[in-house]
Sequence to fold (123 residues):
Amino acid sequence: MTVQELYEKIDGSYDQAVSIMRMDKLIDKHIRRFGDSGVFESLQDAGETMDAKALFEASHALKGISANLGLAKLSSAASEISEEFRPGNPRLHTDEEVKNMLDNIYELYQKTVDGIKDYVNGL
Fold:
């Protein structure tokens, strides 16, 4: 599987990743590390406690990492959480709605990580 084929499989934007990273070698290097950042786990932990500061920080970090890698759907979903908990912004969603948003992020994240595992294993 090529890097471009990986992006098709995970519904990412290869063109966006190339526009930022400039070459497949760098995309490959960083996409392989995506699941090891610990940011997703931090977001999950913050979602369990509904810690506003931690939710903002973790979702903001996930948004940035995802955007840089061309993972637009994941970046957009993380952006919704970061804006919900951005200091100074009023809350627009209930805790239950936020948990549903976090579930959506989990699904997108899992699809991405599973695709990356297949890519790394040459499947």
